[in-house]
Design goal:
The complex is a heterodimer of chains A (226) and B (67). Chain A has 226 residues and is mainly alpha-helical. Chain A is 77% helix and 0% strand.
């Protein structure tokens, strides 16, 4: 899907009248940003489900969703900086609400792992991490709405860009968004499978360990316990 | 600012897409190393189980002989 999207970007979508060829960055930067922000909100929803049901699987889903979203957020910040340098002549514009708010969201989520790692008790760790995921997840749409209400000076708004754009731009953007969403889901499943395998292995190791302390040692981890 | 010429803009567009690909490749490389660690641990545990089975078998054989 992403291959199709990138093919459309370079062979189908026209160059922007205002920005020219630089506008091609839009098709990787904006879908990544949307999927990352939706991922953060989904992490909060999974956190709420964990607090409600106390099932470890929801904590794991919340952890993995936030993990992949933070990776995408790194991509958003870097591609955004490249776009900003090409369009505005600066790597980062500190008085632009959209950029600063995204950086704040990223830095907020960057504290998720230190928070988890600082709590030794696994039960407490998953509970506090869920509360964090809910609060931070609720902050994302509020922050987004506040930024949209604020007067933006330089950063374009995605909704106005895609609705006023020609059909080829909208189609390419939607395919890129679908591709990015599928990539996100695939990476989440991949990460989840890896975590499941690790924990099953640890459990097996503990069962086999018996009195063998060397085998039983697992160490502290920020990852949720299944 | 006016639109950059293609040769100038191309560098930035290439850089942005390369960042995305690099992120993906780094993630896949990290996951591959994790997978190889899991595989190593599975082999280690399988060897442990086999060695324990081997150690347990002579004892059961001795018991059978005595009986």
């Amino acid at each position: 899907m992403l291959t199709i999207a990138f093919a459309l970007v370079f062979f189908y979508a026209p160059n922007d009248a205002d920005q020219g060829f630089i506008f091609k960055i839009f098709y990787v930067h904006v879908p990544m940003a949307i999927v990352a922000l939706v991922g953060f909100v989904a992490g909060g929803v999974f956190g709420a489900l964990h607090l409600r049901s106390r099932e470890a699987k929801w904590d794991m889903r919340s952890y993995v969703t936030i993990h992949i979203s933070v990776i995408l957020a790194v991509g958003v910040l870097v591609t955004g900086s490249i776009w900003a340098r090409a369009s505005w002549g600066h790597w980062f514009v500190w008085d632009e609400p959209m950029l600063v708010s995204f950086l704040i969201v990223f830095l907020l989520y960057a504290t998720y792992w230190p928070l988890r790692f600082s709590i030794e008790d696994k039960e407490k760790q998953s509970r506090y991490a869920s509360v964090f995921a809910i609060v931070a997840g609720a902050f994302v749409p509020l922050n987004f709405a506040a930024v949209r209400m604020a007067e933006s000076f330089t950063h374009p708004q995605t909704a106005t860009t895609t609705t006023s754009a020609p059909a080829s731009v909208t189609l390419t953007f939607l395919v890129a968004l679908a591709g990015m969403t599928l990539l996100f889901v695939t990476l989440c499943k991949y990460e989840m499978a890896s975590k499941h395998a690790t924990f099953r292995l640890r459990a097996l190791r503990r069962r086999l360990a018996g009195s063998d302390d060397e085998l039983a040692l697992t160490g502290r981890s920020a990852a949720p316990q299944l | 600012m006016p639109a950059l010429p293609l040769d100038e803009a191309g560098k930035y567009v290439a850089a942005a897409y390369l960042v995305f690909v690099a992120l993906l490749l780094i993630y896949v490389a990290i996951m591959a190393s994790k997978l190889s660690r899991i595989e190593r641990e599975v082999v280690e545990l399988a060897e442990l189980v086999e060695s324990r089975q081997d150690a347990a078998e002579p004892q059961t054989r001795t018991k059978e002989t005595v009986a």
